[in-house]
Structure formats: structure tokens, C-alpha cells
TrEMBL record:
Pfam families: Rieske_2. SUPFAM superfamilies: ISP domain. It comes from the Bacteria. InterPro entries: Rieske-like_NirD (IPR012748), Rieske_2Fe-2S (IPR017941), Rieske_2Fe-2S_sf (IPR036922). The gene is nasE. This is Nitrite reductase NAD(P)H small subunit. It comes from Paenibacillus segetis. Residues 8-105 form the Rieske domain. Keywords: 2Fe-2S, Iron, Iron-sulfur, Metal-binding, Nitrate assimilation, Oxidoreductase.
């Protein structure tokens, strides 16, 4: 995916994202879960579990840069979207930019609905 095809959108001020608590935003018709970690980083992933039965991720537990799926307890790396062994799978991640206290999330043009 080329960065030149991505557009960043403002999704709220940093203080609107509680530490270690997911928040769902809708962007270009997609539900995206945004997480602010205890070290001040912000990550955005698709709000859909990679588990075969699916389910939301925003209510998962955050520990470090990992999210624990609220339904299946799969451990997901917030940076890469990769599910950790012994499970496997991947969640779509989205670039995040912090600028002047605002959180911006990017999606690719081809994802727009």
C-alpha cells in the first residue's frame, strides 16, 4: 500500500482518547478502534477480530503495545496487527499522526466506501 494513496483525517483531540481504553471511530465507512497506550502512543486498527467468528476489538484489554481480543483472548500487536502465537491472523492497521494535540488517522483511497 502506497502512502501517497492515503489521506489523513482528524478524529479528535488526544485528551478524548483515554489511556488503555479503545474508542471506535467511523472513517470512510469503516469502524476503526483507536487505542492510546500508557507510553503516549496512539494506534488505530480495524474494529474486527481476525478470529473466524469475528467480533469487535475496541473493548479489548491493552497491555503495552498489545491488545487482548475481548472475546477470544488472542494477543494482537497494535503496531503490526499480527496475532501472536499460538494463534495466527492479522488485523488491518492504519497510520496515525499526532499534530498540535489532535489525532489524525489515515485510510487508503481504495478503502473508501
Amino acid at each position: 500500500m502506497s502512502l501517497s494513496n492515503e489521506a489523513f483525517y482528524p478524529v479528535g483531540s488526544l485528551d478524548q482518547f483515554m489511556i488503555q481504553v479503545g474508542r471506535v471511530i467511523e472513517l470512510n465507512g469503516l469502524q476503526i478502534a483507536v487505542f492510546r497506550t500508557s507510553d503516549g502512543n496512539v494506534f488505530a486498527i480495524r474494529n474486527q477480530s481476525p478470529h473466524p467468528k469475528g467480533g469487535p476489538l475496541a473493548e479489548g484489554i491493552v497491555s503495552g503495545h498489545y491488545l487482548y481480543d475481548p472475546l477470544y483472548d488472542w494477543k494482537i500487536d497494535l503496531e503490526t496487527g499480527n496475532v501472536q502465537a499460538p494463534d495466527n491472523g492479522r488485523v488491518q492497521t492504519y497510520p496515525v499522526r499526532l499534530e498540535d494535540g489532535q489525532v489524525w488517522v489515515a485510510t487508503s483511497e481504495f478503502l473508501a466506501v
